[in-house]
Amino acid sequence: MLSEDGLLHLWKHIYALTNDVTPLKQDCGQLCGSMCCRDWAPGVGMYLYPGEQLLLADQPWLKRQWHDSRHHIFPASWGDGGWFVTCTESCPRHLRPFSCRTFPLTPHMDETKHLTVVLDEKGRTICPLVQAGRPELLSAQFRCTMREAWKKLVCLPAIRDDVLMGSRRRENARR
Ligand code: SF4
Ligand code: SF4
Prior knowledge:
The protein is of the alpha+beta class. It is built from six helices and five strands; from the N terminus they run H-H-E-E-E-H-E-E-H-H-H.
């Protein structure tokens, strides 16, 4: 397990790596009225990944709630739970959470532990890029950078476990 300093260093690196990449060369928010940044359903928000909260402590635009693992499903390596966050106004772009950076891609690890990034079906109702069903429409730079970021992140056991859990769920849903 990385120390707190190690985690902070990793997340600073991941944020720097992904800061300037976007799904399309133009602003994809123009396709949908920036649906993923709106309250498109009651209670929508995202989880911070383990250690990410160290970068986002005390941000006034971010409302956080602790989700206890007795009441929410997390991999065992997440311990007591995780931080669920919602934004109360537009975020400073350089601090947008990693979930916002990677969407509409999500990591997938097959049974041989090969990692790819795939369209996130959970976003189908809001995102025209998911609805199009063609990851090749996303910019190559975005796809490569997100794959690189996820490859670094899955070196953390808690993130790897979360990716594995999501991948098994996805495969079961396809059957
Ligand atoms: S919902 Fe999809 S198309 Fe719209 S802003 Fe978000 S990622 Fe871009
Ligand atoms: S944190 Fe920023 S990028 Fe993420 S949903 Fe809120 S406004 Fe959009």
